[in-house]
Design a protein that fits this description.
The chain is of the alpha+beta class. It is built from five helices and four strands; from the N terminus they run H-H-E-E-H-H-E-E-H. The chain has a four-stranded antiparallel β-sheet with strand order 2-1-4-3. It is globular, with a radius of gyration of 22 Å.
Length: 173
């Protein structure tokens, strides 16, 4: 009986010690930055002509690599402006590409930032509305203002990101 009691007491002590050492770790979310991150003002919405140019460049990149992707462009209010699905692209990517574009526009940052945050343990990100933790969504910023965003899906996250960046480069100099 004494051996069981000693083992239980030792385990309880170890749990308290682990909890106390964990409680002493500073929470990085408690840091208060001087400025709000990703504080890019919303601008006039991207036109259909320019959105189509973004998609053409993204899809040309995907085609050159043999990646059947789906890409969407939203305006500065996160409303769909233009959309293309390559032959053979998976059906699930129709919604995912639009989701990536919306999240990039609404939160004014690449969806890669959410992916990194979630992988880094910031699971509170999963509670934010209309967020997606997968790369391939990139804001379109011109003249310091957000005019829209592109979202690509259908490949790996890195493939989606490469195509989206090609679309961004087509109109943002």
């Amino acid at each position: 009986m004494s051996l069981k009691f000693n083992a239980s007491a030792l385990m309880l002590t170890a749990l308290f010690a682990a909890g106390a050492s964990h409680a002493q770790q500073p929470n990085p979310l408690d840091a208060v930055p001087e400025k709000v991150p990703f504080d890019v003002p919303y601008g006039a919405p991207i036109s259909l002509e320019r959105a189509d140019a973004v998609l053409a460049a993204a899809l040309a990149q995907a085609k050159s690599k043999g990646w059947p992707l789906v890409c969407a462009v939203v305006d500065s209010g996160a409303a769909l402006v233009s959309f293309k699905r390559m032959d053979g692209a998976q059906l699930g990517s129709i919604d995912v590409s639009q989701h990536k574009a919306r999240a990039a526009a609404k939160y004014r940052r690449e969806t890669k930032a959410f992916e990194a945050g979630i992988q880094g343990g910031f699971t509170y990100l999963l509670t934010l509305d209309d967020l997606i933790g997968s790369r391939g969504g990139i804001p379109l910023v011109e003249g310091g203002k957000l005019i829209g965003a592109i979202g690509c899906s259908g490949g790996t996250g890195s493939q989606d990101e490469v195509a989206a960046k090609a679309g961004v480069a087509a109109i943002i100099k």
